[in-house]
Design a protein that fits this description.
The chain is mainly β. Helix content is 15%, strand content 56%. The termini are close together.
């Protein structure tokens, strides 16, 4: 039986989000499904800017690679999410969008913290089914 290592990388753009902290990632393999849970903790400067009405756009890249000892690492699967956060401090209205290339989700929030929680987290993302991908291997 051949042993392989799988690595998950997350890149967050824009790069001007200094002091942000990545939560996780937590990778699970259940019934041949690779699922990922991760998130981002914004720094206080970014949160203050959002509260003042400055919009933020964050791009999550969640990529799965196979590590080879001799060959270059092999890209297996990946997902990209563009999440946008907007706040109106006068109306106390908060909106967020999430776009994965195919589906656009728009939400309104009454609470700033609930907007952050929804926007800055990825929960149980089903990345790939390993049985379908490597059935013949």
């Amino acid at each position: 039986m051949r042993k392989t290592a799988i690595v998950l990388t997350i890149l967050l753009l824009p790069l001007d989000v200094f002091g942000a902290e990545i939560i996780g990632p937590d990778v699970r393999l259940v019934n041949n499904e690779v699922s990922v849970t991760t998130g981002l903790l914004m720094d206080s400067k970014g949160i203050d800017e959002l509260k003042k009405g400055i919009s933020k756009e964050i791009t999550f890249y969640i990529d799965l690679f196979r590590i080879w000892k001799i060959w270059p690492n092999e890209f297996i699967a990946g997902k990209k999410f563009v999440k946008t956060l907007r706040s109106d401090p006068i109306k106390r209205e908060y909106t967020a969008t999430s776009f994965d290339g195919a589906t656009l989700i728009k939400k309104r929030f009454r609470d700033f913290d609930s907007m952050l929680e929804w926007t800055l987290s990825v929960k149980d993302l089903k990345l790939i089914n390993t049985k379908d991908k490597y059935e013949g291997a």
